[in-house]
Design brief:
Blueprint lengths: L1 H11 L3 H24 L3 H29 L8 H24 L4 H37 L5
Helix pairs in contact: 1-2, 2-3, 2-5, 4-5
């Protein structure tokens, strides 16, 4: 799957960050999405899906990240801005899911709210990447400037 994501990213000329929150996220979650659609016909299926999706997320942010850090030959540096962005969006999505669970009903508008949350997340990722590129370009220009004597 990874070579296909790399090929699509290069073909579509999108950044690694955007590929991660779109193509890679879809490739990683496609099985979960199909399972969710099939199981959503029953009340028990919805509960199963919520548990499975958040369980998978918890597994990734605990076990997978811990093993990645342990097995990395170099220190892993995470920008705090990116970490807080992802934690923030995950927290908001959990709160929306809890609200929907308490409400006991998911309307079309609730589904639109969840989709908009994802779209906003993608835009924030793209904006942060563009901002990072502008800062890097500006820093390169500053380094190339010759001092005036």
């Amino acid at each position: 799957m990874a070579p296909a994501v790399v090929f699509l990213s290069k073909y579509l000329q999108i950044s690694d960050a955007l590929a991660g929150v779109t193509l890679l996220a879809f490739a990683n979650g496609a099985g979960d999405v199909i399972t969710a659609l099939v199981a959503s016909d029953s009340k028990e299926g919805v509960s199963y899906n919520v548990g499975a999706l958040y369980g998978a997320g918890l597994f990734v942010i605990t076990f997978v990240i811990a093993k990645t850090i342990q097995n990395s030959p170099v220190d892993i540096v995470i920008e705090s801005e990116i970490l807080w962005r992802d934690i923030g969006f995950y927290f908001v999505s959990v709160m929306v899911t809890i609200y929907l669970g308490i409400n006991g009903e998911i309307t079309t508008w609730d589904a639109v709210l969840l989709l908009m949350l994802y779209v906003i997340y993608v835009f924030v990722v793209v904006f942060q990447k563009k901002k990072e590129q502008v800062v890097e370009h500006h820093n390169e220009e500053l380094l190339e400037m010759k001092p005036i004597h």
